Amino acid sequence: MENGHAGKHRVAVIGSGNWGSVASRLLASNTAKLPSFHDEVRMWVFEETLPTGEKLSESINQAHENCKYLPGIKLGTNVIADPDLESAVKDADMLVFVTPHQFVEGICKKLVGKLRPGVEAISLIKGMEIAVEKFSEATIGYREDKEAANRWAKLFTTPYFLVAIVEDIEGVELCGTLKNVVAIAAGLVDGLDMGNNTKAAIMRIGLREMRAFSKLLFPSVRDNTFFESCGVADLITTCLGGRNRRVAEAFARNGGKRSFDELEAEMLHGQKLQGVSTAREVYEVLTYHGWQELFPLLSTVHEICIGQLPPTSIVEYSEHTPNLSFVGGSTPCY
Amino acid sequence: MENGHAGKHRVAVIGSGNWGSVASRLLASNTAKLPSFHDEVRMWVFEETLPTGEKLSESINQAHENCKYLPGIKLGTNVIADPDLESAVKDADMLVFVTPHQFVEGICKKLVGKLRPGVEAISLIKGMEIAVEKFSEATIGYREDKEAANRWAKLFTTPYFLVAIVEDIEGVELCGTLKNVVAIAAGLVDGLDMGNNTKAAIMRIGLREMRAFSKLLFPSVRDNTFFESCGVADLITTCLGGRNRRVAEAFARNGGKRSFDELEAEMLHGQKLQGVSTAREVYEVLTYHGWQELFPLLSTVHEICIGQLPPTSIVEYSEHTPNLSFVGGSTPCY
Fold first, then answer.
1. Which residues does UniProt mark as catalytic (chains A, B) (predicted)?
2. Does the structure's ipTM exceed the value 0.85?
3. Can you tell me the distance from the alpha carbon of A264 to that of A279, in angstroms, rounded to the nearest whole number?
4. CB contact, 8 Å: A318 with chain B?
5. Are residues A102 and A201 in the same domain?
6. Number of compact structural domains in chain A
7. Which residues, in sequence order, are CB contacts of B145 under 8 Å at separation 6+?
């Protein structure tokens, strides 16, 4: 990465909703302290006119606070709101994407030809949750360029937010995606009132299948990635809270009689569950390769989602528990 | 193992409390089905006289039910209660210990010279929880003799209770012990109301330290063991429910002003928390080897337990998070 302006990296945040504001605040606090970064963090604002008649970007720059999406919290005087996308990114060599995922493609198209050479980007859109000043963690996956990965980790790390890097992009990505399918399984167990023992067993079997599935698809995937925050910790968080878990619980409480679509519409106000669509995509991959029997939990979640199996099936696949020892699983006894 | 009586294995259960009765029921259901086992399961009963004047062992053999410790559940006609320890074990070649741990030593002394040659024993005293007919799992650790391990696994496996075997006795044992220390950390987070994100992070860091500590003590310990039921699943169960978590939560809610001893006495009616004493023992090992800085979570739990640090310290060790990459951890960024 080229590193202009007296050798200091410049950060731009694409997005200024609740998450974008939280990220800008954290980053600005770090860039102010770290000598290798320019203090200023540019935050691209999708411009709105506030009820007062003021523009959102102007309000942010005056009050150093996003009064609409993160009221009551100071962002830091070095967060500069900019309603012009091209101007917001033109000096940056590190871009942080924090917009709703449906806007990413359109934004990227607008950025073509407008960026500095060698610019790097990171996405916080999926998987990363930064609890405000509460201790938490995240994992950054990278390929080869450890120096760049370390630079990003440094930019995000705070005493309450630990960031680790792992050389396993596919593993990190698949953890972020597959955990939502396991969260559906965990939610079904909650809805069936089977207790923590059963839920923990299902989460573990889910983690095992996540690992085996990832390693079958990408032999480069490492076991250790599943011990990282993106693995076991995010899985636990998603299976304890999270909307996939919540809607699946409601699905099981209704005995599968109300569809996921219906419950989603009612409970999530138009948002879609990642887990249901991921389960379908995973099922297609499993079917294509003839792997369904190797992944009873992942398969069963999809078959429950589409109403082919009842919710209780989530704990009824023991008789065909597969031997996953080829990817490092133990040998279950039959 | 010698295998007398027409080649069939004979099982005796040492203990007939709630757990002992649940185990006897499960085992008897399996021995009745499995051709390599003698149907009968002898259950040693610490004899008591019931309010009706009847002996507990006689009542069990008449009603096929332990009306005192597992009322309302049929044990199976092939469970034979025996109040005479020597007689209960004399034909058995597989012993299952399910007594309160303080009685084990005394019982073992009485068994010296009374057992058949080559007899094998398993302990269900710590770590294994068999939810009645709810889906759950367990791990059996073994050394070298895979055939024996498989025999035990077969004896315990049911469609709702999956048993896996791993060639890593030390790893399985240490999982069972160390998880209680992590559960104290998780309980402290609950008591501080820090939410699921923080709790999941602490559980993951705990799992990482469990793994690193085990591997430092016993280089033979395997990473995979921590993906087994005895690792991640039991850790989750213990950190969601469990008395270590519960008392630690109360400790944090009281700001550390009431001691663990006091809270234990009040909440557990004389039972002692495994986690507090294990944390002390682990701390002694860490101090002896000069390893405290490598294991901030395990160390901090002990220092909180003895009142040397406040409960909030559980989330304040990020600045000295160690590099555990020598046992396969990722490199955190500082």
1. 179 (proton acceptor)
2. no
3. 15
4. yes
5. no
6. 2
7. none
